[in-house]
Write a structure and sequence with these properties.
Strand order of the largest sheet: 1-3-2
Distance between the termini: 18 Å
Number of strands: 3
Radius of gyration: 18 Å
Shape: extended
CATH architecture of one domain: Orthogonal Bundle
Structural class: mainly alpha
Strand content: 5-15%
Largest sheet: 3 strands, antiparallel
Amino acid sequence: MSSTRHVQPTFLTLRQAAAEGYAAYSTLRKYIADGRLPAVKVGSRVKVLRTDLDALAVSVRPATFEEVEAAAERLASSAPPLSDAQVRRLSAIFGGAA
């Protein structure tokens, strides 16, 4: 049986996101209004998920194979273990041996 880890999503206020360099406060408000950036309101504060902010990033140059491979390895190492059924399904999708 595989154990699953619950990873708590990281929410940031718009001021925190702006301070971390994701975009200017007004730009973040515009992205929310345009529907490009999902947001929630907690009390009087508007918050966004860090992963949604990361998804807004656009590379200024194509990533190298090594960079993509390193990113995939980081992602895979932080993911919960897959069940046998999930491994078989992914193998079927990607054409590998189960």
